[in-house]
Amino acid sequence: NQVRMKASLYFIIPQVATLRLTSCETSNIANHKGVRFGKRNQIYFKKTRRKYDKLAIPTLADSPLTYF
Asked: Which of 4, 6, 54, 62 has the CB geometry, 3.0–4.6 Å to 41, for a possible disulfide?
């Protein structure tokens, strides 16, 4: 359990600093809609046309690629 805490902290810290998801994008994640997975764990939001690394979003960091 401790190892996992360290890992999640590692993802949350850069996320707060650099990643600013719009409300549209966060709702897309919650609803599992409007999101496409690309190569190398990238996430692509159709509406805002922005790409992110899957590992940069803490809630998605430990979920499998088939999550959506």
From this structure: 54
